Amino acid sequence: MSQTASALVLGFLLASAYGAGFHLILGGPARRILLYMFSSWIGFLLGHFIGDILGIDLFKLGALHLLSASLGAWIALIASWWFTAEES
């Protein structure tokens, strides 16, 4: 049970860092950081589950599929940036 809780906390922290870093690099209004954080959390979660289903064990850290989860977060961040770039 503690391995799952540790993976949950680590995943939340990494996804939050990805979203905040993405906003720091690109800038934009303050409300956009909420979009980037939410997108990163969802992408990280989906990437982890896809990595688990497909059995991608490259860069697995405990119960966390780090490679696929990080890739999912970055894809979600780029997609959210791309979808909101039209409105600016």
Explain how this protein is built.
A hairpin with a 2-residue loop joins β1 (60-61) and β2 (64-65). The chain has one domain (2-85). The mean pLDDT is 91. The protein has a two-stranded antiparallel ribbon with strand order 1-2. 78% of the residues lie in helices and 5% in strands. The protein has 88 residues and is mainly alpha-helical. The radius of gyration is 13 Å and the shape is elongated. The protein has helices at residues 2-26, 31-54, 66-85; strands at 60-61, 64-65.
Helix content: over 70%
Strand order of the largest sheet: 1-2
Distance between the termini: 45 Å
- State the secondary-structure class: mainly alpha
Secondary-structure element order, N to C: HHEEH
Query: Biggest β-sheet, characterized?
Result: 2 strands, antiparallel
Radius of gyration: 13 Å
Write down the overall mean pLDDT: 91
What shape does the CA trace take?
A: elongated
Strand content: under 5%
> How many domains, in number, for the residues?
1
The count of strands amounts to: 2
Q: How many H/I helical runs?
A: 3
Q: Report low-confidence residues grouped into runs of 5 or more.
A: none
Compact summary:
This protein has helices spanning 2-26, 31-54, 66-85; strands at 60-61, 64-65. It has 88 residues and is mainly alpha-helical. Helix 1 runs parallel beside helix 3.
Summarize the helices and strands and which ones pair or pack.
Elements (H helix, E strand, L loop, with lengths): L1 H25 L4 H24 L5 E2 L2 E2 H20 L3
Helix pairs in contact: 1-2, 1-3, 2-3
